[in-house]
Fold this protein.
Amino acid sequence: GFHKDPRDYHFGLKTETGEQKLLYRIWESGGLESVRRSRDWAHPVGWLSARDDVVLVTGGAGFIGTNLVDRLIREGRPVRVIDNLSRPGVEKNLEWLRSLHTFEFVPADLRNVFALEPAFDGVSQVFHLAAQVAVTTSLQDPLRDFNINLRGTFNVLEAARRQPNPPAVIFASTNKVYGGLPDIPLELAGDSYQPVDTEIRAYGIAETRNLDFHSPYGCSKGGADQYVIDYARCMGVPAAVLRLSCVYGPHQFGTEDQGWVAHFLIRALKGEPITIYGDGKQVRDILFVEDLVEAFLKVERHIARLSAQAFNVGGGPANTVSLLQVLELIDRLTGRPPEIRFADWRPGDQRYYCSDTRKLGQAVDWAPQVGVAGGIARLHDWLSNSYVVARHHAEQRLAL
């Protein structure tokens, strides 16, 4: 059966539209024994209740959250994770974290304020990563996108504000707050677009760029972005915004709608065709997740002087790459060219985007350390051994 209440995603087997929910996925992949084991995920960690320095990570079982939680715990910090486990694959991330670390997991949805409030007990720092992450999904269901991204962020900020000592909130925003950038003249340089303006070409898009929310996703994330800044200005919550650009790395189960570098690799490793929306010459500055985690932690350490500010964080000019160039790298790694199909451009898709990260670099002495080729090779190696690819190959052998 299905369960209608979106705040309790972990209940029921399927959504009203037929999408598999968490219980169904666990049952299908590991049977009843896996379902029984999952009962232990949410057991509280008793010693956390007596502390006042807990780090709360919303969306902590997601791709970025998993990498951040792993780093935090390795540094000896007490961590509490909130996640509704709605995205396929994140339960595998949670199991991986559980196999290595002790932390508290709260299976809750940020739209449910009654489940959210108790999770802030003893919290001194919040990394707010939970979100609806796809432009296409926001176009199909803008109300859901609004409730998760904007109302969910508002709920986090209110829960922080109500604490006796409000914890700092660092928010994962997006470069989509700058819109489609249609006013920036571009030219073709081989198999990629580049700005005609030499300064933008040298440094990328800066935080001084006017905001231009395009698509419901751009509106919900952009609105949340501005709420975070204003709660720091007006409501006594120390907070900063990081506007992310194309993050990739281990523990990412990319889809056609989000996480395109991992999606391309997964499709290539499974021998499946890849669809390019547009001409493939659109350019992004891609950022390896370890570099993003370092940026988060550096901003946290300096939150007192960085509060109420927004920072671009991405690979920067040194890590710009077109979709076609990424496919060439994948071809070399897999040893066989993937089948490519082309489709129309999607709303809000930027032909060129590169983050000007100088503001962040000057504020906290940060710069990306992992290059494009090395980072994609590391993601390739991780995905080659992940359950997604391994299960696909096992199913193929059974079919033979």
User: Anything to note?
Assistant: The two ends are 33 Å apart (CA to CA). Residues 47 and 237 are 26 Å apart (CA to CA). The mean pLDDT is 89. The longest strand covers residues 168-174.
